[in-house]
């Protein structure tokens, strides 16, 4: 007994009392660090989801609004004619600058925060509501039709433009109250440089507008202005203000003409009474796009509705005038965006729920693993007099100290890396992660150590008789899950209107996985039990031994199996969605193009194009077609294509849609030409022959011999496809070329086709289908979720294997003393782990297949794949993608086998002394 | 046994029975017809089949028996880690059958301390010896447990215990820095930390060599003598009988024989010598287990003939068979 020199009681007291958390952290820094890492990464992912959603939501909405343009998104308020007729004051006053600017300030303040407005881009003024013809000969007249103009006295032209030439216009001198400015014969105006260029206007040009009485009104152009932001709402909310538009007359022969605007001085409003254009005050309120958020969609929609016909409209009418129109397409734009969002929302939710479940399971498993590893220690603590509450408290303190800072770190990292949207949701998500991580170990320990006792019974699958209470709990869970799935099946998955998705739909893969996990865990020991007996008669030692070991593997495998199944289902579902989306895009592109590329609008002069296109790099085959879009079948207008039957049939069959037998289409010189027709035509004419007249006067009698809904040359409208030899001029020259290639070189094709012909590539169309950041964002979130889910599933697998690792190492060590070779050891571990891995893989594939079958009817990928307005390619339905089903499942098997082999290798290298120490009863 | 008792006789007899002290009234540990049945895979195994045992306060005794004789089961029951199926078991006035979870916790904290066979399982590997000893006191969470004085008191007691068991030099070492014997002595200190009435030890020397084993027994004796703690040691090692004053053998879930050791002074020589004498246990129903070697030696089977003599009972092999056949 050696006495220590130090003063005993004081220092000893501090050394003897155990600072639990500190001691534990110091004892197992590795475990604490691993938990911290797991929690930090999980919290990061959980906290990153809300801002990521927010970001693409926001970007998507902004893009949708930008794509719609100021013409549709701005709110137009215009005083109607009645305002003028019903008033008794001098009309000039109603059009004065004060009458415009006064209400403008109030209008800008009116919608408040619900609809933030961009004051700079909003505009107000007086303009003619009817366009007026200007028959001056020097103005550009493409088809000999005189251009039309609006006269616009909009405030702030000087601030929003740069004067390039001349001077800004002035309002005519005020002739005094009551004196008819109707008599004013000349006005001054500016035009934008673009209007000037397109319409051939110069400084000093005078535009004349004939009036019903008297001389025409002369508007002298005093200057040219260049808009500072030509695409901003100020210049483009009114269509013709910034740049002239090409219009088309109605009637049998369409002719083009220009429509433009002449910019008057802001205070020249009253002078417009001298024009026949029915002047009116107007205000254009441009929404501030940078202040609009996807998450405010509801408020925004209701604000717009209120503006168009609600309380806000009421207040506008009291502010301005009872007679006014408020119009905007903002609600349509928002509605379209909301439709896209609600189509994409459920898909993203499926991924989020799936990955969330897997992550939660992994956190629980990590707690379970820790509890299992520390079982002896915890049993000792309980035996030495630790109360259940005390034990839980100590463990909770341990995990909280690690989990809470780690989660906070993850949250911080997520906010820094991804964005700052939806802070509350991020915090809640990270907090939930911390909570699960902190509670898993204490709860698990409390459950295991509720009764203090010596655990001596055999705890394995084959003989395990799970308690009745557990059976009841599992059956209850099973019933709930099955009920939910049944509800889903009978009710269908189409959740209308709710952009966040129906939780039941989103949970479906998880529910299916829960059912499968519970059922499989119960069924799985049966074949093992059945096999164990005959296997004993096998000659080798490894086979029966591994089978027996697989049967005796640790009891509770529901959690890891659930994690694996959910992850596999989510991954396969995601893979199928992404494949489906790609397929839908390809299909839409094929529908739009009809081949890998298409050259069309070929003119008579473009001879030799076909040869040149054939020689272009990447081109495998070219099918010439002669297309007429206004042929008459009977008296119905149809699209008609003349083709070379063999080549066209080959092309059609290659695109696996619209395929037909070439021989049926061949015209063999008889009177009736066999034709391929659309269903509508076939229904109309049946088997009867009918006359076909082409634009060039060619005519023949045709009969529909085959019906297809789609054909490469013409798409899916009413069409006829006939043998080109039946046409008077044959196929020479073709009007279009359908090009097959891998892929054709775009630049070379364009060069070969010449300037006049148009070239459309399928790859370009595919690229163009992805329009909204909402779509790309959804895809990205989905891909990230699937990747994270896969990583967690792999982790779950590793945790399961890790849990049994010491026991397996001990077994190998013992068996090796009995003469087991390394190769046999390796085989043993691999064979032993295979049954569970195969179970998970097969179960996962089945679950995924079932989940996809279950959800497919309600999931329309068309919206995700191609934006609204893209050519209709039919509904893209969700199909189980074999690759997505098989690859993750096989990865599970490969990973398991890999880990088993690695462990065999590792324990083969290490000495076996520790495992063989007596007393370490494993 | 008289016939036709009068009412007065009966009353007297009942009163006498009532006033007679209850079974084991003066014992610290009382096991009365203790039964423990395990059910595994539908097969019932009777580990204890009506075991009777009395241990008086301050005793140092050993329970010996072959593997599977039920001694570990008895140990777990006494430790409050297992509940008997039937019978009665009382330790320090607490009924082990009817204890609630809360009572059980208090029981483990205040009444019993134990030491297991595996040296490594008695101590938390990441705590020093002193901390391990202090831990049960900390866990029991007595009022004022967090105050400075309470902490100092705990430290004092921990060091005292270590010193008493002659492992004070190990107080700042972790279990893996100590020998098996040292670990086991620290474990005894841990078990004594809560100042228990009973110290239970399950094969405490199982992993140790005989010399170290002797040291451990010395430690138990020290605890028994200096603290007055009742010590019950379970072992399969018959040699233990030489180390303790009372050895009870368990066979087939029942106590069978008992060896008492006491020192006697030889009247002739005046030398003091230790006398060990083996007894058979007589249970309350009057059942007696005869040692197997006795019965086989005399070919006793099925039944024996008893004769009551003035100072003993003679047991003879059954001799009625010849006439019967």
Automatic annotation (TrEMBL), chain B:
Keywords, alphabetical: ATP-binding, DNA-binding, Nucleotide-binding, Transport
Keyword Transmembrane in record: no
Keyword Nucleotide-binding: yes
The ABC transporter domain, residue ranges: 32-277
Domain SpoVT-AbrB: 277-320
PROSITE patterns: ABC_TRANSPORTER_1 (PS00211), ABC_TRANSPORTER_2 (PS50893), SPOVT_ABRB (PS51740)
Secretion signal, residue range per the UniProt entry: none
SMART domains listed in its UniProt record: AAA
Name of the protein: ABC transporter
């Amino acid at each position: 007994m050696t006495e220590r020199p130090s003063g005993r009681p004081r220092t000893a007291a501090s050394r003897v009392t155990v600072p639990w958390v500190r001691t534990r952290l110091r004892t197992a820094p590795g475990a604490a660090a691993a938990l911290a890492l797991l929690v930090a990464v999980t919290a990061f992912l959980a906290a990153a989801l809300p801002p990521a959603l927010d970001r693409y939501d926001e970007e998507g909405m902004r893009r949708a609004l930008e794509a719609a343009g100021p013409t549709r998104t701005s709110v137009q308020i215009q005083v109607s004619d009645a305002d003028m007729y019903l008033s008794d004051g001098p009309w000039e006053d109603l059009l004065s600058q004060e009458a415009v600017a006064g209400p403008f300030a109030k209008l800008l303040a009116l919608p408040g925060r619900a609809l933030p407005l961009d004051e700079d881009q909003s505009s107000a003024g007086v303009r003619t509501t009817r366009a007026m013809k200007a028959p001056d000969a020097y103005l550009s007249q493409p088809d000999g039709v005189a251009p039309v103009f609006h006269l616009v006295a909009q405030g702030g032209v000087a601030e929003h433009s740069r004067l390039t030439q001349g001077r800004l216009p002035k309002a005519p001198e005020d002739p005094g109250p009551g004196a008819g400015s109707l008599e004013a014969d000349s006005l001054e105006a500016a035009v934008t440089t673009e209007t000037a260029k397109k319409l051939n206007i110069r400084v000093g040009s005078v535009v004349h507008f004939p009036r019903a009485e008297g001389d025409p009104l002369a508007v002298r152009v005093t200057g040219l202005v260049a808009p500072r932001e030509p695409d901003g709402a100020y210049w483009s909310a009114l269509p013709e203000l910034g740049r002239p538009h090409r219009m088309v007359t109605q009637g049998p022969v369409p002719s083009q003409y220009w429509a433009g605007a002449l910019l008057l001085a802001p205070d020249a409003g009253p002078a417009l009474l001298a024009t026949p254009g029915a002047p009116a005050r107007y205000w254009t309120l441009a929404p501030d796009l940078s202040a609009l958020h996807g998450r405010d969609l509801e408020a925004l929609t209701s604000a717009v509705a209120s503006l168009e016909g609600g309380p806000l409209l009421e207040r506008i009418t009291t502010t301005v005038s009872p007679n006014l129109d408020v119009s905007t397409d903002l609600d349509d734009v928002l509605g379209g965006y909301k439709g896209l969002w609600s189509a994409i929302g459920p898909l993203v939710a499926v991924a989020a729920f799936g990955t969330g479940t897997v992550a939660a399971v992994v956190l629980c498993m990590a707690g379970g693993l820790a509890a299992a590893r520390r079982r002896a220690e915890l049993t000792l603590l309980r035996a030495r007099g630790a109360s259940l509450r005390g034990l839980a408290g100590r463990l909770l303190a341990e995990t909280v100290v690690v989990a809470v800072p780690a989660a906070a770190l993850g949250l911080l990292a997520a906010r820094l890396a991804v964005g700052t949207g939806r802070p509350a949701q991020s915090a809640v998500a990270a907090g939930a992660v911390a909570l699960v991580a902190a509670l898993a170990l204490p709860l698990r320990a409390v459950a295991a150590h509720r009764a203090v006792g010596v655990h001596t019974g055999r705890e394995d699958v084959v003989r395990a008789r799970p308690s009745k209470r557990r059976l009841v709990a599992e059956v209850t869970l099973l019933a709930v899950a099955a009920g939910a799935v049944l509800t889903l099946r009978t009710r269908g998955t189409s959740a209308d209107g709710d952009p966040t998705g129906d939780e039941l739909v989103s949970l479906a893969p998880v529910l299916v996985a829960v059912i499968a996990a519970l059922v499989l865990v119960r069924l799985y020991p049966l074949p093992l039990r059945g096999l164990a007996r005959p296997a004993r008669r096998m000659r080798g030692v490894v086979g029966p031994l591994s089978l027996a070991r697989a049967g005796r593997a640790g009891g509770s495998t529901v959690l890891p199996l659930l994690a694996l199944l959910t992850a596999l289902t989510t991954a396969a579902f995601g893979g199928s969605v992404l494949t489906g989306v790609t397929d839908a895009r390809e299909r839409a592109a094929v529908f739009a193009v009809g081949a890998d590329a298409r050259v069309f609008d070929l003119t008579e002069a473009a001879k030799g194009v076909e040869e040149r296109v054939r020689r272009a790099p990447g081109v495998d085959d070219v099918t010439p077609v002669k297309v007429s879009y206004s042929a008459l079948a009977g008296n119905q207008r149809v699209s008609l294509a003349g083709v070379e039957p063999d080549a066209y049939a080959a092309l059609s069959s290659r695109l696996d849609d619209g395929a037909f037998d070439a021989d049926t289409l061949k015209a063999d010189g008889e009177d009736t030409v066999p034709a391929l027709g659309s269903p509508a035509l076939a229904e109309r004419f049946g088997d009867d022959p009918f006359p076909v007249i082409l634009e060039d006067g060619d005519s023949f009698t045709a009969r529909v011999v085959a019906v297809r809904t789609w054909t490469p040359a013409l798409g899916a409208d009413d069409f006829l496809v006939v043998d080109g030899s039946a046409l008077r001029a044959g196929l020479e020259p073709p009007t279009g070329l359908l090009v097959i290639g891998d892929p054709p070189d775009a630049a070379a094709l364009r060069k070969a086709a010449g300037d006049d012909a148009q070239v459309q590539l399928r790859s370009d169309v595919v690229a163009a289908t992805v329009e909204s950041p909402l779509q790309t964002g959804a895809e990205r979130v989905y891909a990230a979720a699937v990747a994270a889910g896969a990583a967690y599933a792999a982790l779950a697998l590793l945790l399961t294997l890790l849990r049994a690792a010491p026991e397996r190492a001990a077994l190998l060590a013992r068996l090796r003393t009995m003469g087991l070779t390394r190769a046999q050891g390796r085989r043993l571990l691999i064979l032993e782990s295979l049954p569970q891995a195969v179970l998970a893989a097969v179960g996962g594939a089945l679950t995924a297949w079932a989940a996809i079958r279950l959800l497919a009817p309600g999931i329309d990928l068309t919206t995700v794949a191609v934006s609204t307005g893209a050519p209709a390619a039919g509904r893209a339905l969700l199909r189980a993608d074999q690759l997505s089903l098989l690859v993750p499942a096989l990865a599970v098997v490969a990973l398991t086998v890999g880990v088993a082999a690695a462990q065999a290798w590792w324990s083969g290298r290490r000495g076996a002394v520790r495992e063989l120490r007596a007393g370490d009863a494993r | 046994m008289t016939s036709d008792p009068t009412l007065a006789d009966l009353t007297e007899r009942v009163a006498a029975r009532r006033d007679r002290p209850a079974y084991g009234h003066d014992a610290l540990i009382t096991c009365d017809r203790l039964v423990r049945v395990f059910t595994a895979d539908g097969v019932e195994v009777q580990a204890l089949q009506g075991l009777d045992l009395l241990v008086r306060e301050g005793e140092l005794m050993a329970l010996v028996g072959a593997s599977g004789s039920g001694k570990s089961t008895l140990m777990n029951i006494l430790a409050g880690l297992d509940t008997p199926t039937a019978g009665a078991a009382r330790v320090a006035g607490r009924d082990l059958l009817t204890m609630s979870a809360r009572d059980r916790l208090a029981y483990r904290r205040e009444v019993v301390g134990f030491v297991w066979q595996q040296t490594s399982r008695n101590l938390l590997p990441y705590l020093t010896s002193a901390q391990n000893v202090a831990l049960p006191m900390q866990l029991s969470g007595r009022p004022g447990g967090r105050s400075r004085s309470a902490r100092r008191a705990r430290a004092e007691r921990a060091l005292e215990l270590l010193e008493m068991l002659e492992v004070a030099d190990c107080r700042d070492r972790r279990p893996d820095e100590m020998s098996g014997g040292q670990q086991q002595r620290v474990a005894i200190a841990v078990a004594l930390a809560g100042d228990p009435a009973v110290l239970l030890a399950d094969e405490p020397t199982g992993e140790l060599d005989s010399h170290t084993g002797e040291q451990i027994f010395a430690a138990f004796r020290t605890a028994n003598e200096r603290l007055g703690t009742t010590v019950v040691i379970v072992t399969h090692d018959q040699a233990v009988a030489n180390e303790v004053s009372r050895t009870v053998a368990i066979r087939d879930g029942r106590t069978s024989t008992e060896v008492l050791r006491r020192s006697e002074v030889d009247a002739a020589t005046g030398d003091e010598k230790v006398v060990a004498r083996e007894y058979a246990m007589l249970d309350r129903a009057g059942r007696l287990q005869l040692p197997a070697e006795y019965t086989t030696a005399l070919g006793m089977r099925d039944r024996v003939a008893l004769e009551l003599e003035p100072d003993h009972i003679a047991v003879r092999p059954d001799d009625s068979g010849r006439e019967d056949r």
